[in-house]
Design brief:
The protein has about 300 residues and is α+β, with helices and mostly antiparallel strands. The chain has helices at about 20-30, 45-55, 65-80, 95-100, 105-115, 140-145, 150-155, 155-165, 230-240; strands spanning about 1-10, 35-40, 60-65, 85-90, 115-125, 130, 135-140, 175-180, 185-195, 200, 205, 220-225, 250-255, 255-260, 265-270, 270-275, 280-295. It has nine helices and 17 strands. Strands 5, 6, 7, 8, 9, 12, 13, 14, 15, 16 and 17 form an eleven-stranded antiparallel beta sheet that branches. Strands 2-1-3-4 form a four-stranded parallel beta sheet, with helices on both faces. A two-stranded antiparallel ribbon has the order 10-11. Helix 2 (about 45-55) runs parallel beside helix 3 (about 65-80) and helix 7 crosses helix 8 (about 155-165).
Amino acid sequence: MKKMLFIVNPCAGTRRANRYMTDIISIFNRAGYIVLTHVTERSGDGTVIARKLASQVDVVACCGGDGTFNEVLNGILLSGVDVPIGYIPAGSTNDFSTSLKLPTNILQAARNIAEGTPHVYDVGRFNDRYFSYVASFGAFTRSSYSTPQSVKNALGHTAYILDGIQELSQIRKIHARLEVDTGIIEDDFLFGAISNSTSIGGILTLDPKQVNMSDGKFEVLLVRAPKDLLELPECIRALQTQKYNCSMITFLSTTHVRVTGGKDLVWTLDGEKADWQKTVDIQNINHAIRLLQKG
């Protein structure tokens, strides 16, 4: 019998996955797994338990949102163990799973883990932390970690949109210096994202033709602070149409980003707040994880 560590966040999303726990574990049992289940109680639990037990199992699976997957990802990579990961997306937004077209049906997602094969993907390293799909700063990033869980549960993805709209009135320009493969970019920005995803915060999307999640490169999207209000409509149209030929937008691919900024440069990693650091080195770790998928 194979062994599986199954990490569950019972508060994720609208808690809809909780009523399927017996069925999920039954699916894993029928696939030949002895399942060790751990229910998280506080932030960081997923990292601790994954790091501690990854070497003792054949698969580490998790059920929750992007934050839960981020914790499990960090635990596995910090353990140094190359173990396949299974993911049942059950959060409010699920950017990472949307990019990979993972099933939104809870039981189908479990079956895909049980019947799937490992597919390799890149991850990002943010100084000494890892992220699965995005490190971002500026407009809208605050809403991903400041929106109360109760509001997320009640409104789901809509909570991010509503909080993001409220944030528009509080947008401040952020001065940052970015060193990328092709040179240096320094300016005042409204928003910046270093991503490996087609969906960012459920608000911005990238053309799937421009994103390869296992090519060793990030996509960098920077929105410069407008010089006047006449620039804003052009910027909004560019973001909506995914045609980033606007003077306010910089869009490029790179393997590495070094970012320097002041105290107003607040980061989120996969929607979770990161501690402030004046300078961060962000590296693409090519083929860092093996995710169980069907097809």
